[in-house]
Amino acid sequence: MELDNRKIIILKTIIKNYLATGEPVGSRTISKESGLSLSSATIRNEMSDLEEMGYILQPHTSAGRIPSDKGYRFYVDSILQESDNRVSEVTDIMLKRVDKLENLLKQMVKILAVDTNYAALVSGPVLSENKIRYLQLSQPSPVKLLLILVCEGNIIKTELISCKKPLDTEELLNLNLLLNNSLAGRSFKEITPKLIAELLVQAGSQRNLVSTILNAVVELMETGEESRDIYTSGATNILKYPELSETDKAQKLISAFEEKDELKELVAEVTRSETDNSHNVTVYLGGEGPIQNMQDCSLVTANYELGEGLRGVIGVIGPKRMDYEKVLHSMQVMMDQLDRMFGKEE
Amino acid sequence: MELDNRKIIILKTIIKNYLATGEPVGSRTISKESGLSLSSATIRNEMSDLEEMGYILQPHTSAGRIPSDKGYRFYVDSILQESDNRVSEVTDIMLKRVDKLENLLKQMVKILAVDTNYAALVSGPVLSENKIRYLQLSQPSPVKLLLILVCEGNIIKTELISCKKPLDTEELLNLNLLLNNSLAGRSFKEITPKLIAELLVQAGSQRNLVSTILNAVVELMETGEESRDIYTSGATNILKYPELSETDKAQKLISAFEEKDELKELVAEVTRSETDNSHNVTVYLGGEGPIQNMQDCSLVTANYELGEGLRGVIGVIGPKRMDYEKVLHSMQVMMDQLDRMFGKEE
DNA sequence: GTTAGCACTCTTTATCATCGACTGCTAACA
DNA sequence: TGTTAGCAGTCGATGATAAAGAGTGCTAAC
After folding, report:
1. Which residue out of B163, B258, B346 would a mutagenesis test of the A interface target, given it has the greatest number of A Cβ atoms within 10 Å?
2. Core-most of A297, A306, B196, B342, by most CB within 10 Å?
3. Is the pLDDT of residue B277 over 60?
4. pTM metric for this prediction
5. Stated in angstroms, how far is B58 CA from D17 C1'?
6. Which residue among B180, B202, B221 closes a domain?
7. Which residue would you say has higher pLDDT here, B308 or A185?
């Protein structure tokens, strides 16, 4: 059987209606709302077909139809295609100019949550190619060394290191020189065992100390997923959707949002799976890919990039019957905002 | 009327039972469980008295009694007294040695939540008297200055500052000298307008730059409540208690845990209200003090101190019928752990 | 002072009939 | 052949009613 135009219209009507109400939709409703002038009986026949083809299903005999995963998938894909061509309207979301990136992201995720009425998350950006600009050692107290690492994009990281015996000024200067000579300009990957070995040889008597420092540097450089910041908002929106608010499911979901660990993995997974999409907008339906343990949920994600290779993920989690059109649009607007704010700058 | 011994036993039995079940408790239950060999009828008479005295109340005519706020207060206070004398048993909570304080706190709050089955929060520590140990300026790129501020307790803060024109090495050195001379050893309060004015005079041609730097320093020093980190865990435990899991209340509470802003205020308020209690353990009943908008909740808080004046707040939020005994005990154990870990060190 | 017993209240739970929203099928129609 | 009207049948939702259960207050007796 073929999915002809009329079937498509009916399918879309069913889905839209279901998204809006959360209730199974019956043939009469469609007959009235689809725009087609067909009687409910005809619709019923078509619906029979659609069910047979697997796009919709019936929770129980005397109920209307709800979209199946295949149906959702079809719908989401067709929206995704449309919105590529659509110019996102300029909405006047007032993202007040904020001083810190962190605050900006917090603000963004909040707006997204309020705007969509779903749970939203944003990952802090991670440098894809994190290069050391320079590093600096100083000595706050006799047996402590402060390591300051400045990376491309002015990312600053510090670490306190204990050392056995105090260094005098000259030693400190030499150490700084030595480290900068070999490490400045290098990315994480370029700190090879060979390089480390060389450095240790050059270090001479300071061998142990240099080794400790190198460990600290490597640790700081590992912008590992574990260290990624995740900001969330609107987790409790989940409670608004009956199909998710059964105590058990809601608990799991909201916990995931609170503890963040799961979200980190999720972000990691999303980051890995690159597509050629412009902002890499992807829709995962419950059970697929990164959200296997989130039944009945949908996850919409997009990647953002702030220039200089700073990249992160933004996402919205809601029930399967989420208003995809709206969510995709909201995300688009967010992306545009970010592009505008950071495209111009620097 | 007087609260004689028998009344106290009955009252405690009522409360304990209510805490365990969440259901109003009737006279027969008490007759069986109180340990007193009295018939339910006698108990009923006593309960009448207790109700008249305001310690308990009846949700509706044909129901048992539940503790009133006055009842809770009585109960909590009596526990608090007891547990002062009690040696906290050593429980073998495995707080794995963690490298970062942040992780330790996260671990702690998680344990507390799991252990008590309520929602738990811990605030990151804040230096009560935050003194600058030294500060350092360096120049990562021609028009950027990196300000590094090292405070007592090895708290390190950094800030990137833009400057109009590049400084040469000597200027940078002088600037560092100037700033350290006047600021090192000072606490936030000691950076007075007078001091600032003096500094600006000494700065001479670098006046503008020094002003910018000073602003940054002051900003970094303000360990304002807004910048306090808050770690939470177990927010969804709230859903386990019927009296809180009505969508509306649960939503509010869990949101508070997610967005953290409210919690920050709460912590601020708790911090302000000092008592002479050893760990400053306090129980707030729903509506009292910092949790006015959290009806039907109780908040148990304690202060912790990590030496060097690093202080923070730890707390548990649950329904009014929370198992105070257990919570207070768990918190006690946490405090002991912290004391042990940080008392020995340094 | 304590207790047994009874009448009364009020919530909870179960049961049952009714209603309404659907579907699927058949037969008629264009 | 595609479309439609109509009807029987299914199943969940709703609401009313009854029965059960838990508790109290009061009174009278011990």
Report:
1. B258
2. A297
3. no
4. 0.78
5. 28
6. B221
7. A185
